[in-house]
């Protein structure tokens, strides 16, 4: 096992979770063939197949299942060790990587300011998270905590403070019939094409943010699927479909003259939550969660959880 490559292990872990070479490659920002090459190299080192490949599916061999059970906790421990050494090298503050979807709204900016005032020795990096992969950056340890649209039903992730509860907003082209409306009802989504989210995002999550049926069960015409918010807004401007957004994101993009933002009634409220890995309880992560709670608007009924 001499000369073991970390990238080979990352490819195996991504493939074990996705069970699809293409999706594993997108998670690692490499090609499908590169994932296959890394896996073959790892299997050569191990001396046996870890994955069964057919034309229809990918699954782990019994040896692959055993390897995954041993490797997962060890890989997480390795990342924790690196983070702790990095923090020690930087001093008490260390570093914090905060992911976000859509835009850094006023509340998140206030939380970042409060955190920075309290912990000036902690370097904070902001990382935008693709709309189609709300939880991947957390799992790949590219961010330490993330502000994402709810719901979150991932067993390895914990939802902390929840904020920004508002009606959904529908982004439509400025020339769309809905553009001049003060609001639209959820049942009226059946009258327009709704831009979807690429299937990298969990099905339950996509069902909330790009529904295929109205609350009454009427089918919603499907528009093109996108990976990023910017892709979606560009398609909206071209009148290729409408897109559901949270109010904070809509407010951030109101300067777009080619897009109108209309409140939607009749849907569950849109919520943003601060999410972290279940096994990540480092002081900077907890301190930032406290800053988020302490900067919540007074009318928000909330508590620090997780």
TrEMBL record:
CDD domains: PBP2_LTTR_aromatics_like. It comes from the Bacteria. SUPFAM superfamilies: Periplasmic binding protein-like II (SSF53850), Winged helix' DNA-binding domain (SSF46785). GO terms for cellular component: protein-DNA complex. One of its GO terms (molecular function) is DNA-binding transcription factor activity. Keywords: DNA-binding, Transcription, Transcription regulation. PROSITE patterns: HTH_LYSR (PS50931). Residues 4-61 form the HTH lysR-type domain. Belongs to the LysR transcriptional regulatory family. This is LysR family transcriptional regulator. It comes from Saccharothrix australiensis. The lineage of its organism: Bacteria, Bacillati, Actinomycetota, Actinomycetes, Pseudonocardiales.
């Amino acid at each position: 096992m001499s000369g073991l490559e970390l990238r080979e292990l990352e490819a195996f872990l991504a493939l074990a979770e996705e069970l699809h070479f293409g999706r594993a490659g997108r998670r690692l920002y490499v090609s499908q063939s590169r994932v296959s090459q890394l896996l073959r190299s790892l299997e050569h080192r191990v001396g046996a197949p870890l994955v069964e490949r057919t034309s229809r599916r990918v699954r782990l061999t019994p040896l692959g299942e055993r390897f995954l059970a041993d490797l997962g906790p060890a890989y997480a421990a390795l990342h924790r060790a690196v983070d702790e050494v990095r923090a020690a090298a930087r001093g008490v503050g260390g570093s914090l990587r905060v992911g976000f979807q859509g835009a850094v709204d006023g509340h998140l900016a206030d939380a970042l300011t409060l955190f920075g005032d309290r912990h000036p020795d902690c370097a904070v990096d902001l990382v935008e998270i693709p709309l189609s992969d709300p939880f991947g950056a957390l799992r790949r340890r590219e961010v330490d905590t993330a502000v994402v649209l709810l719901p979150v039903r991932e067993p390895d992730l914990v939802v902390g403070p929840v904020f920004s509860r508002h009606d959904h907003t529908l982004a439509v082209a400025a020339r769309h019939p809905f553009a001049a409306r003060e609001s639209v009802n959820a049942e009226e989504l059946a009258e327009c094409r709704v831009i979807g989210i690429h299937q990298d995002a969990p099905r339950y999550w996509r069902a909330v943010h790009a529904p295929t049926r109205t609350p009454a069960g009427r089918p919603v015409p499907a528009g093109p699927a996108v990976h990023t918010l910017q892709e979606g807004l560009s398609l909206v401007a071209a009148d290729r479909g409408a897109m559901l957004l949270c109010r904070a994101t809509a407010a951030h993009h109101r300067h777009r003259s080619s897009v109108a933002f209309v409140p939607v009634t009749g849907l569950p409220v849109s919520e943003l939550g601060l999410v972290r890995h279940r096994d990540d309880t480092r002081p900077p992560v907890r301190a930032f969660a406290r800053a988020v709670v302490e900067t919540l608007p007074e009318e928000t009924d909330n508590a620090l959880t997780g």
